[in-house]
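Materials and Methods. Structural model of Glycoside hydrolase family 16 protein. The 276-residue sequence of Glycoside hydrolase family 16 protein from Zopfia rhizophila CBS 207.26 was retrieved and submitted for structure prediction as follows.
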Amino acid sequence: MVILPIATLCWSLPVIRAAIPNIPGFTLAWGDDFIGGANTNWGTGEIQTYTSRPENIKLTGDGVLQITPVRDSAGQWTSARIETRRLDFQAAANGRMRISARIIIPDIRDEAAAGYWPAFWTLGGNYRGDYQNWPSVGEFDIMENVNGVNSVWGVLHCGVNPGGPCMETDGIAGNIACPGSPCQGNWHVYTIEVDRSTSPERLTWSVDGVTFHTVTQTQVGTDTWVQAVQHGHFILLNLAMGGAFPNNQRGSGTPIPATVPGVPLYVDWVAVYNSN
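The predicted structure was written out as tokens:
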């Protein structure tokens, strides 16, 4: 556990919290609802931060994790990433697994959002400690959003880079505008389901229960699928600034002078379920 001091909340948060839900047919295998005081201790995860500064990552004190990008007087950006200690989140043979989180994407748009890249994702557990085996270990991008666009992406990375069955470095992607209300500034539940109970096996992405992307074992081949899917993963949440994915999407791929710092990503809860 990394111990972080907690700073005063400086951005208005629409605090409408929700309990980690029960899912019919599934059992909660692991979850974190970030309940705890706004003090010097928090969480059940392992932190790997771009910085360890409290202005970048903290609990708000009302059960919400906050990750905030900051720009200093020299124009340098800092932010944070959080990872689970556990590496073993997986669907059993003939079973299903769901990984979900309730998140508010930074409430920022247009030029002010240039370079913003919040993400909720997983990596194959054997990536940690190796770092040379991507993308064969598998990466599930459950939610990615860039440049303040009212859309989220779900992506599978697998196989070899460049090219391969997942068309790296882009991966196999789908996207959707958030249902009911804009992605920015509103609570939405982002989910991936790993289904090994059907043939072919499949990955399904959804927002608030609305499915928007599916990838099957047939699409990438059995060997690639086994390497990417049929083993444990760990979970990551982060808010990056700039990078390859923002460069491929609408708007500027890197922060510009008009980019506004200090607009947070909020996480109410994260949960992993396995089928009964």
